[in-house]
Amino acid sequence: MTYAGSGLGLLPDERIDLSERLIRNEEDNGKSLTDPVTGLGNLRRMKVKTDKLIEQRADDPAPFTIGIFNIDRFRPVNDLFGRKAGDEILAQVALRISASLPDDATLVRISGDMFGMVLPTCFFEKDAERLGRLLKEVFTAPFDLGERTVRMSATFGFCQYPFAGNSFDELFDKCESALYLARKSGPSSVQVYTHQMADDMRKRTRIEQALRKAIAAEEVEPHFQPIVEIDTGIITGFECLARWTDAELGEISPGVFIPLAEQAGFIDSLTKLLFVKAIECAKEWPEHIFLSFNLSSVQLMDPTTGLAVMAMLSKTEFDPRRIEIEITETAMMSDPETAERIIDEMRAIGIRVLLDDFGTGQSSLGRLRDFTFDKLKIDRSFIAALGEGAQPEHIVRAILNMCEALDLGVIAEGIETAEQAKMLVQLGCTTGQGYYFGRPADKDKTLAYFNDSEVAADGTLTCRVTSPGCCAG
Ligand code: C2E
Ligand code: CA
Ligand code: CA
Fold first, then answer.
1. Could you give the C-alpha distances from 353 to 7, 213, 305, 314, in angstroms and in order?
2. CA of 285 to the centre of ligand 3 (A)
């Protein structure tokens, strides 16, 4: 069984620590319930109102709704036009939203660009959705900043008592989860906490707990997929891909547990475990075979990653020149300076750095200009489309030409058929990986490649392709 979880929950540093925030609120404003910038209530007031409603509704189990929203891209506007303009926008948002809410509703400003609402007579999921859509509309008119106007939008998360929780903390937490999911759909979205979300969150919590244990028990394993010279099938290296099977939950895809480890804050221990295990395996391979290792985007935002990689390497006494590190664009977009430093640190000790999933990001060409890579991997969506008309072929050819001009190595990933392999050879792509050459396999099956494959006089290995005959010519 493989879970396709939805990765709910805010990243740890995005979540509001409610009790801390409430204490700070009190320190700033005494026991005040008012936000000085907008004149609205503050988080304390939202809690007081919610607590009171929970008390009243204990006997009368009618639901009510609480909601939170963030103004999208508020910070750049604040930075560009100044704090005064930012405060002006906050005040106008307060006015507009207040005017659009039912009379019995309470609107508060929680902090920065985040607002909260308590809606005593919003009873049903569909009412909250309708209200969310209306409030979204309220943002469409431009905001007046004297000489200029700016356009803003907001993203909303709602949840309902008692379905989502019986305390303010629980309800607020569910609102944050809904807001997080809304943000994933892009700016100006609305999400109500639903049964589906509750199910996903329960599943996610189970997976998270099991994963935490599995990491402690060192039960996550590296598997390896061969990277080959396409025309000969000769193996040049292996990509390490994480595999985890839980006794109860079954096999869980890295597409699920890697993002979960990132969000839950234990990606570092998972990476360390995999890296050390992978290197132990790679030590048994012939010396010219390299190991390619994926770094998660969260790690490229952490300035200590370069040092951590070096420390792990020196402990294992493995030649850094046999290592390639695969990174994706996401991290480089969030914190380019840190990412650049980490890339430089790794390259300085001989590790090659590779841009993964090329062609799927938002501005891959910009990345190539701003960062120094040794190779890039053409995303498998382009390879899968080869043979389906001329366009994918043109794209792959253009990427190959560009890499040649920039002196970049290229790996084609996701090669599944002899036809794709053949076309890549004709287009001049020399290196690739994919099910056609070999699926990811555990360490023993990987070692068997070196025993079963044909070993030439010079020590190179020929990968066993699934159907013989192959692709040269
Ligand atoms: P990725 O780095 O792009 O890895 C390639 C994915 O494509 C792997 O999926 C691999 O099994 C799959 N694949 C390889 N050849 C073929 C093919 O011919 N056809 C098709 N359809 N798929 C192919 P997998 O192992 O499920 O990993 C998914 C993603 O999870 C990886 O994408 C990577 O982003 C992440 N991941 C896996 N292991 C690790 C790890 O140890 N650390 C980190 N940070 N991320 C990892
Ligand atoms: Ca990869
Ligand atoms: Ca990839």
1. 28, 31, 14, 18
2. 23
Q: How far apart, in Å, do the first and last CA atoms of the chain sit? A: 41
The residue among 44, 57, 23 whose CA lies nearest residue 110 is 44
d(CA 172, CA 182): 15
Prediction pTM value: 0.79
For residue 309, report the phi and psi dihedrals to the nearest 5 degrees: -60, -45
Give the distance from CA 44 to its chain's centroid.
32
CATH number at 355 reads 3.20.20.450
Residue 339: C-alpha distances to residues 327, 329, 335, 369, 370 (Å):
10, 10, 6, 14, 11
- Give the model confidence (pLDDT) of 40-58 as tens digits: 999 999 999 999 999 999 8
**Are residues 227 and 239 in contact, defined by beta-carbon separation less than 8 angstroms?**
yes
Same-domain check for residues 85 and 210: no
Question: Residues 124-142: pLDDT tens digits?
Answer: 999 999 999 999 999 999 9
Question: Are 408 and 440 part of one and the same domain?
Answer: yes
Ligand 1 pocket, residue 294 CB under 6 Å = yes
Task: Check pocket membership of 306 for ligand 1, CB cut-off 6 A.
Answer: no
CATH of residue 171's domain is 3.30.70.270
What does the pLDDT look like over 425-450, one tens digit per residue?
999 999 999 999 999 999 999 999 88
Torsion (CA) 456, 460, 463, 468 in degrees, nearest 10: -40
Tens of pLDDT along 25-42?
555 555 678 898 899 999
Q: Structural domain tally of the chain? A: 2
For atom 28 of ligand 1, which residue has the closest CA? 255
E strand or H helix that includes residue 160: strand 154-161
Calculate how far, in angstroms, residue 439's C-alpha sits from the geometric centre of ligand 3: 14
Residues with Cβ within 8 Å of 301's Cβ and at least 6 positions away in sequence, in order, are 331, 334, 335, 338, 339
d(Cα 89, Cα 80) in Å, to the nearest integer?
Answer: 13
| DSSP class of 363 | -
C-alpha to C-alpha distance for 383 and 200, rounded to whole angstroms:
33
Same domain, 214 and 180: no
Say if residue 157 is in the same domain as residue 241: no
